[in-house]
Amino acid sequence: MSDQEEQQRLKEIMEHPSYTLAYLDQEFVRREELRPRRLEMELLKPEMMLEDAGIKSTVVAFGGTQVAPREEGERLMTEAKAAIEKDPDSQKAKRQLIRAERVLYKSRYYEECREFAKLVTNYNKQFRDGEFIIKTGGGPGIMEAANRGAYEAGGKSLALNITLPFEQTPNSYITPGLCFQFNYFAIRKMHFLLRAKALVCFPGGFGTLDELFTTLTLRQTGRMQEIPIILYSKEYWESILNFQYLADEGVISDSHLELFQYTETPEETWQVIKDFHGVEE
Questions:
Q1: I need a labelling partner for 260 at 20 to 30 A (CA). Which of 79, 121, 197, 232 fits?
Q2: Which residues 6+ apart lie within 8 Å of 262 measured at CB?
Q3: Which of the four CATH numbers 3.40.1550.10, 3.20.20.370, 3.40.50.450, 3.30.70.100 does domain 47-69+107-277 have?
Q4: Distance (Å) of CA 85 to CA 76, 95, 104, 250, 280
Q5: pTM value surpassing 0.85
Q6: Per-residue buried b or exposed e for 70-88, using 16+ beta carbons within 10 Å of the residue's own CB
Q7: In the chain, which stretches have pLDDT less than 50?
Q8: What's the confidence (pLDDT) of residue 1?
Q9: 34 class by beta-carbon count within 10 Å (0-12 exposed, 13-18 middle, 19+ buried)
Q10: CA dihedral 99, 101, 103, 108 (to 10 degrees)
Q11: Given this model, what pLDDT does residue 167 score?
């Protein structure tokens, strides 16, 4: 073998995927057989980094990505009215106006979630460093409002993003170093609840319902710590869910209706959490 052939041979050996360190080989790591290892790493990475960061407990805020700040709701209303004026008989334009009206109405929840996060953050800054840290899914809407409130109060907040088929980026109010990206919804859900001292569900859609019912089921079956589960805005939640009917039908116990409660203001919500944990300011 000539020197040139030897060098070419050596290059082929070292550039082949077999020579790449196993944990650096993305094609290998993403093989079907290694899913259990990916699940394990997705569980361990945030756990270890939160431990290093001194995050002891969290207050989880769930809610819809489409719950926008007032200025966004007003923009949607302006666009919807313009569409109606252009074509008054358009069913699509009429539907657009109805939805814009509801988005604008719900903008108050964005501001109230923002205020709630400020209350919690002001407390943990003064009295409980590393405790009662705001945690969200890291996206827009209610999640942004909660992270924003913590940021404006000068405190920390963390977020658990999820990879989706469409582009997603975290909101800019999350504390750098406390934003984690997940591939598996199951592990992400687990991390939402591992350090949770309260769960507050603001108005939202399928994702919020999924997270709410996961938590209710775990509490119902005694598979997680006791925490207050708070549904913010009785008007909204009773419009989309009839929990009493489930009890009347005998598919849940009457006592299961005590697993959650409704609140209407940021102050009331924070008071429920403080009372549950015996917190004094």
A1: 121
A2: 230, 231, 232, 233, 234, 237
A3: 3.40.50.450
A4: 14, 14, 19, 50, 55
A5: yes
A6: eebbeebbeebeebeeeee
A7: none
A8: 77
A9: middle
A10: -160
A11: 65
Write out the two tokens for 71: 């200025």
Alpha helices, H only, the chain = 3-15, 26-29, 35-53, 70-86, 91-126, 142-152, 185-194, 206-220, 234-240, 243-248, 266-277
**Given this model, what pLDDT does residue 126 score?**
86
Tokens representing residue 115 in the block? 């205020």
Give the residue extent of every domain in the chain: 47-69+107-277
- For tokens 């549904």, what's the residue? 231
The length of the chain in residues reads: 281
- Which H or E run includes 130? none
What's residue 71's pLDDT? 95
Secondary structure (3-state) at 41 = helix
